[in-house]
Specification:
By secondary structure, the protein is mostly beta strands. The radius of gyration is 16 Å and the shape is globular. The protein starts with 17 loop residues before the first strand and ends in an 8-residue tail after the last strand. It has one helix and six strands, in the order ββββαββ.
């Protein structure tokens, strides 16, 4: 899925588009929400080896990002991913709010609409 965010009709407009390539941290977890919607969540480790401007970053740090999908075709496909798989995810950054006994809470996560495995945890290329 390639989206040209630099096209003339998109310049100067708001957009929330995320493309991540990273490694699965733990096995994806299926859940059913109270309204009956099935979702799948996973964590993605994304290396910070370079900055967004392409400059080298010392320290080899990573970002651990929470991802979620409710796209039916991804529910069974992504459920097969294992720790160490390298995947490409497309979606949008969302801030979720909920009430807890301690008060209102929130977190940011990537709402994934398209994804594919690029390489398996055993370093074999994947199609």
């Amino acid at each position: 899925m390639a989206i040209d965010i630099t096209s003339p009709e998109r310049r100067g407009k708001h957009r929330n588009y995320v493309h991540l390539i990273g490694e699965i941290d733990a096995a994806p977890v299926p859940r059913t929400l109270r309204n009956g919607t099935h979702i799948l969540t996973w964590r993605l480790n994304v290396s910070r080896s370079i900055t967004p401007l392409g400059l080298p970053l010392d320290g080899g740090k990573i970002d651990i990002l929470d991802c979620v999908t409710a796209v039916s075709s991804l529910l069974s496909y992504a459920a097969l991913w294992v720790p160490g798989d390298v995947v490409s995810c497309h979606g949008a950054l969302r801030r979720r709010f909920w009430r807890s006994p301690a008060g209102a809470r929130s977190r940011c996560e990537v709402d994934v609409v398209a994804a594919r495995r690029l390489r398996g945890s055993d370093d074999q290329p994947s199609s």
